[in-house]
Amino acid sequence: MPAAGSAARSRAGTKPPAGTHGVRPAAPLPEEDRARLLGGAHHDPHALLGAHPVRGGLLIRALRPHARRVTVVAKGLRAELPSEGDGLFAGVLPLRTAPEYELLVDYGEHTLTVRDPYRFLPALGELDLHLFGEGRHEQLWQALGARTMDHQGATGTRFTVWAPNARGVRVVGDFNYWDGTASPMRSLGSSGIWELFLPGIGAGELYKFEITRPDGSRTVRADPMARRTECPPATASVVDESHFRWQDAEWMARRGRRPVHQAPFSVYEVHLPSWRPGLTYRQLAAQLPVYVKDLGFTHVEFMPVAEHPFGGSWGYQVTGFYAPTARMGTPDDFRFLIDALHRAGIGVLMDWVPAHFPRDDWALAEFDGRPLYEHQDPARAAHPDWGTLEFDYGRTEVRNFLVANAVYWCEEFHIDGLRVDAVASMLYLDYSREDGGWTPNVHGGREDLDAVAFLQEMNATVYRRCPGVVTIAEESTAWDGVTRATHHAGPGGFGGLGFGLKWNMGWMHDSLGYVSKEPVHRKYHHGEMTFSMIYAYSENYVLPISHDEVVHGKRALVSKMPGDWWQQRANHRAYLGFMWAHPGKQLLFMGQEFAQGAEWAESHGPDWWLLDPSYEAEPDHRGVRDLVRDLNSRYAAAPALWERDTDPAGFRWIDGDAREDNVFSFLRFAADGSPLISVSNFSPVVRHAYRLGVPDGVPAWREILNTDDPRYGGSGVTHPDLLKADPTPWNGRDSSLAAVLPPLATIWFTPA
């Protein structure tokens, strides 16, 4: 059976070089070495195979199962090696030094000429091993995994894998018919890394690692560092080599010029496989940037794109942390999509999942026969909610694996931001665990100190290496200092986690609770809309209406609203207007921009048919989408809505306690003090001559957005003319204006 596959060059019928040297039989291998080598449990096969000086000549030994004969061929040399049985061939040649030889392997029906992998020195340097041992290899993907290269005059692929508990590791793949007998790897000392350079193997080859566990059993595993994979449900890793040429230099140069906290930031969240089902990355590149740019979003956020076996997990149970999912194309195809978005002026955020991983027996779980990526303590390792395993954040190599992974997506794919999933489940030892089901930390507390240190290191590393990138925490508790700098300690003694932004889950929960109530009951829940301003500046927030809020019985956003169809859409529009004006950045999940009534399902994605002009209710949905477009354009043009998002001086209530009216009115201020008024009437009645206290020095105000505009499907209660302020004291201010508040609507005013 050939052991060089597609990389070998068949020379059946080709004459070898002239000249044949006599060969003496080699001393037999010690039985223990022989058994370990053939059993895939030898730590140093290079010491047994390849060329080695011995007394009286040069010993060359090859392991080629199923071969009839093996001949050493070099310039002026042809020497057949005697068989030692079990696929071993060895002989002593009358040479002092090893020539650059090849092996002519005769399988009977065909003959292959291959370079001997066991004549090469390690292709991984001491610096790489040192950095990995220290947990500081910030470009780990260049050291581990499968990497094509030129090495000692040969072109091939270097395979490396971390498996410190393994008794032996072999490479298997198409190139050796998935029989790793001829491809054992060597252990690189105490690093726990195994290495083998296979000449002639190139991009596109499928491979895995066959690992002999401590108990002698074997397991075949995908490469944890694979940069490309087969398309699920197939599970092999793929040797990858990028040839992509980026064209987004202008975007990359300017993306960090303005701090994200002081910039417009509105996000369209997308599940790529279902946004337009069936499209490849390159086909998406022709449609998604156009759509997002037309709607005016500044960023897209991809739900996880790292490879995952089960599509129904939406990507949140990752097996290939370094590989974009093959469902839509290759890694270079994914780069093409990001490049197209950047050239359209759109930033790309990506959901990143370092909190856990699935238990698939071909992936990370007990990778080398013992807990490796997961915690040694089974109670700590098992994630109680999802049936998955939690990473061991206290292990140096695991932390390096994850920190480098964050850097990888930003450097190799030009990702502009990482939204880190399930941070709360990482931070607390007792997360979803009953009393007695967890062990306190060394201080007797419930905080996972290893996870805290990991998140701090990850954030510090990403911000240092990748200018302009933002990290965003999905953190659902009141942990102090999520977006505080890592070197600034808080009241609890912890330094900040170092994130740039945090999802405001409290705002999301409270505000959705309010708008889901019938208007007659909303006055009793008024505080659910105002409470967020008590803590609005405790962190740097994103206001998320994400996929999690429109699945599993929670209903789509418009379907959460009470009333008939007109009132549901009016509530939906008013809520979006309130959201875009509230301090914090915005995020909206696909389908909600046109008031899709059904919950999202990853099997078919958004209900685009609602926007078909032949559909009777199409204007209703198009109107909501037109509003989202105008919200984004007005927002981008109004620095008052984003320049001081993290500064309390950028917000003032006009009246935060108009509970009997179901009205919320407030001011936003730009850095130069320029104001914007936002008024939301969550009552289904028109409120005439509704007085609002306004800042002095502004004689007139212009309506720049009204969610009741007929273009959006509203009733048309608008302000086509300027509203003049008068000296009537109101809401604690010396000046005020009288506006007409449309039913179930939000209005924005700016100085005329």
N-to-C CA distance: 82 Å
Largest sheet: 8 strands, parallel, barrel
Cα Rg: 32 Å
Structural class: alpha+beta
Going across the major beta sheet, what is the strand order? Answer: 18-19-22-23-24-25-26-27
Q: Could you report the average pLDDT, rounded to the nearest whole number?
A: 95
Number of helices: 17
Proportion of helical residues: 10-25%
Q: Strand portion, in percent?
A: 15-25%
Sum this structure up briefly:
With 752 residues, this protein is of the alpha+beta class. The strands form eight sheets. The protein has an eight-stranded parallel barrel. A six-stranded antiparallel β-sheet has the order 28-29-30-35-32-33.
What does this entry look like structurally?
- It is elongated, with a radius of gyration of 32 Å.
- α5 runs parallel beside α6, α8 packs parallel to α10 and α16 (565-581) runs parallel beside α17 (618-636).
- The chain has 752 residues and is an alpha+beta fold.
- The protein has 17 helices and 35 strands.
- 22% of the residues lie in helices and 24% in strands.
- Strands 18-19-22-23-24-25-26-27 form an eight-stranded parallel β-barrel. The protein has a six-stranded antiparallel sheet with strand order 28-29-30-35-32-33.
